[in-house]
Each structure stands twice: as C-alpha cells, then as structure tokens.
Design goal:
Blueprint lengths: L1 E6 L9 H8 L5 H9 L3 E3 L2 E2 L11 E6 L16 E4 L3 E6 L16 H9 L23 E7 L2 H12 L4 E9 L6 E5 L2 E3 L7 E3 L8 E10 L3 E8 L6 H8 L24 E9 L6 E5 L4 H8 L9
Parallel strand pairs: 7-14
Antiparallel strand pairs: 1-4, 2-3, 2-4, 5-6, 6-7, 8-13, 8-14, 9-12, 10-11, 12-13, 14-15
C-alpha cells in the first residue's frame, strides 16, 4: 500500500477534502479518492473524516492508496473492429449484442474480455478490475463507437471532457411515429424508475439533467422516423428514455419500446455513428465515424432508403 502525504497551505484552506487531494495529485480521479475516503483510507491529523470535510491550514493528510487488485477477468481472443489506436486510446466500433464490461450473467464475451487480450496490460485502471479502460458505455444492443483509454492520464482527460459535455456523440435511430418538427431538444432529468428499479425514467425529483438533440432525416410511411441524435449529456439509457418520453420509442427496444415487433429485431435500432474529442496528449480534435451496420442497413433497405450520400 502506497501513502500519499500532503500538508495544507493557507491558499488551499476551505476546499473540500476530495477536491483538494485531486488537485494535488492528478494521478487519481476524484471519484476514486471519494471511495477511499468512504473506506477510511484517508486520515486528517490522524483521524478519519467525511468526504465533504473542509481542509484547514496545516492539516496533515495521509491517503493510503491500496495496491491494484489482481485482475481475474479472462482475456479472450475476440475479433475487434478497431477504428483507431495509439499509445493512449483505442477507438472501437462495437457490434450489436456485445456487452461492454463484465457484470452479473456476463463475465465472458464482453468488450473488456476482448480488450484485455488485445491490449494486455495497457488499459487504464481507474474504473476497477471489471471495467479497465472503460470511460463511457453504450448498451449491449446499441452498436457503434466507443473510446477506450490505455492509461490513467488519458482516462482522466477523456472523463473530464465527458463531464464538460465537449465530446461529440451522434447517433442514428429508427423511432415509431412521424416526428412533425424537423428538429428539437428533449431536456428532462433521468433517474431510476420509482417502481421498476432496473429501468430508468424521467425523474424530476431525483434525476440528473439530461439533454438530447434530435434532427429528422427521413419520414417512413408516416409510421416511423429516421433521426440523428446528439447527446449533450450521457445518462444511462438516455436516448431510449427521452425518445419514449415524447412518444417516439425506438424500434426493437425491449424495455422502453412497443411490445409488438413485426420486423423480428434483436434489439433497439440505435447506432453510435460519430465520436469526436480532443486527444489527451496532442490536444488535437479528432473525429471518427462508423458505417451503418448490416442489421440497420437491412431494415432501411426494405424501404429503399440509402444513406450513402448523406
């Protein structure tokens, strides 16, 4: 176990403990340090304190950083559609049906299992042993682009861009019903469903702000609409919840959609098409685009819709 020892100067007095430690040592994220404080791994003047403790001049802080736990998730030789890769990041085009990281019932065949084989020891560790390298997610049945971080410096940088809402994330989706306006915005907080705890919902009392912008690309037989959606925030199931809330649920969505599915889809019609951000090292803006996958293109072809020229 490593000890991080800090002494508070006059200029830092009054800051929250977790914020102060983060500013003094940017190797670790604020959320990681908050967990250590709650686990009594941080002492101020020899005593444990709460996360919101305000540091005082001459406070002596000892932060005990536990050694990394041995990774017990199996590396698997699963093919990856790698769009871009360097020493800091890797951009992956995830197929529909692949879980991003191990969880109950899904400890094999995930994107993380594949990344562990491909990257070996080169993945950030901030999100723990189950989610190495993972800084953001897309749902199992959503296809498209993800940025994965190979070291903690890149992870902290990309996470901050996500927090600041400066990352470009555009999706294509097929939704029910004809959207009358050409474009619009859904600005409604999302939180846990008050009854169905595995679902998310518009939750104005306990939810967090969520903003989704949409633009109509095509009206289909007055029954469906092809839309481009841009995330301003990134809440769990955000697009699926927001579009359902305005009476335009996604085709194939088994949770927030319509039970009847005459197309026999294997999941929601949602594809993370464009991903753009500032590279954590060279500070240049980079943008990537993933072509429409077969499952999506096949359904559009039934209506003779071709997006190649768009």
């Amino acid at each position: 176990m490593n000890d991080l020892i800090l002494n508070v100067d006059k200029d830092d007095a009054g800051k929250r403990l977790d914020k102060y430690i983060t500013e003094q040592n940017q190797t670790y994220s604020r959320s990681f340090l908050q967990r250590l404080i709650k686990q009594d791994c941080v002492q101020v003047n020899g005593k444990t304190v709460k996360t919101n403790y305000k540091v005082k001049q001459n406070d002596s802080i000892i932060c005990r950083i536990p050694p990394p736990r041995a990774l017990d998730i199996k590396a698997e030789d699963i093919p990856l559609d790698i769009v871009y890769e360097d020493k800091d990041i890797i951009i992956v085009n995830k197929p529909q049906g692949m879980v991003v990281h191990p969880a109950n019932g899904h400890y094999e065949g995930t994107l993380v299992n594949a990344l562990l084989y491909h990257c070996q020891d080169s993945l950030s560790g901030i999100n723990g042993i189950l989610r190495p390298g993972i800084v953001h997610r897309i749902d199992k049945d959503t296809s498209g682009l993800l940025v994965v971080c190979k070291n903690d410096f890149a992870h902290i940088n990309i996470a901050q861009q996500l927090k600041d809402h400066t990352i470009t994330r555009k999706y294509l989706a097929l939704v029910y019903n004809n959207i009358k306006e050409n474009e619009g915005t859904v600005d409604a907080p999302i939180g846990r469903h008050p009854i169905h705890r595995k679902k998310m919902a518009i939750n104005r009392k306990n939810g967090k702000r969520a903003v989704t912008h949409y633009r109509v690309l095509e009206h289909i037989n007055s029954q469906y609409t092809l839309v481009e959606l841009q995330l301003e925030t990134g809440r769990t199931h955000q697009i699926r919840v927001h579009m359902s809330s305005i009476h335009h649920p996604l085709l194939g969505d088994p949770v927030y959609g319509i039970n009847k599915d005459k197309f026999h889809l294997e999941g929601q019609m949602l594809h993370a098409k464009i991903l753009g951000f500032i590279h954590p090292t060279n500070r240049q803006y980079m943008q990537f685009e993933a072509p429409l996958p077969d499952y999506f293109r096949k359904l559009l072809n039934t209506w003779n819709i071709n997006l190649n020229d768009r």
